Amino acid sequence: MELSRVRDDDDDDDDEREIESEVARRAMRAHFGELGRVLTTSEVFVLDIDGSTYRARVADVNSKTCEEEAATLGYHCFRARVNAETTFYVRSSDENSLRIANNEGKARSVRLARREVIEVRTKDGETFPVNRRLLRQCIALTSAVRRAGELGEDDADEFVSADVDIDTDVFDRALIFLERAATGQPPPAFDIRVTEALARAAEVLECRSLEEYCAEKLGAYGSRIREYDWDEVVAHNAAGGVWLVIDGMVLDVKRWLNEHPGGDTIIPKQSLDMDAARHFEMYHSSRESFLYLKEFYIGEVRARDRARVPSPSPEASEDFLRQLRQYTTFRIEGDVAPTRVHLGQ
């Protein structure tokens, strides 16, 4: 539990208050210790201790000790049920206004557990506490992994940190991959855009397993990119497939139909066996939709067959097609020569 003072109008802002750890913990047990009660991280309560009012926030809940938690890969606990063995710990949210005296109950466990954790800072300033066993696959972090393992019980104020030149969102996904691999679970189904960013992160981390995963997925993506005869597209759709054509691009969207915001029938009913660029322009006012096209892209209608592709009237506007081609720089060479721009422009 994390305690903070609830100040009265008469309180001096510079006044520091002190409370004994055991007194605070006894109040916690009395207030929250009912057997079977469920406590969730970040819950906030108002608590009276010796006639003073405090704000109590559930900072952490754990079904394991610090050492067990640090040694267990894939362990995440955000909600727990109080039982007869539950131990309450308390800390201050601001040592300048509230000091918890004689608060050493968890210190040794924290020191012992610290050797299992590395504080990894991403290039945009976020910090991740990561189990060092997850990072053993990352050659670039070998020295940090070793330093953490060498921390002794007397290194009370020491922790090992490492900086990585990777964005926070990408590093978060890299950790998901590493955790699933370490716990014997199949890798997550990241889309192509995420996989490309992960491939760059794998190079920074020098993580071979992540490099191989990305290479395999990107290779499978590359191997299915080719040109299609128009008759092949029509035949595939007649057999139950959903190959959508937009500005000559062939997009396999069947697996996405259930997630389509417009429902799973509008594309098969209205937009197959034609160039659906006009429909795409009408139904997608946000250019965010362009970002998903690469995930479904499987190639192009052959240049010689383009004239055979029916197009509804009126056709897509030139402004829409220009923007579409700016966002689809991944297209294979053909009669469309897209202009390369950054997505933020």
From TrEMBL:
One of its GO terms (cellular component) is membrane. Keywords: Heme, Iron, Metal-binding. Gene3D superfamilies: Cytochrome b5-like heme/steroid binding domain (3.10.120.10). SMART domains: Cyt-b5. GO terms for molecular function: heme binding; metal ion binding. It holds the Pfam family Cyt-b5. Residues 225-302 form the Cytochrome b5 heme-binding domain. Belongs to the cytochrome b5 family. This is Cytochrome b5 heme-binding domain-containing protein. It comes from Ostreococcus lucimarinus (strain CCE9901). The lineage of its organism: Eukaryota, Viridiplantae, Chlorophyta, Mamiellophyceae, Mamiellales.
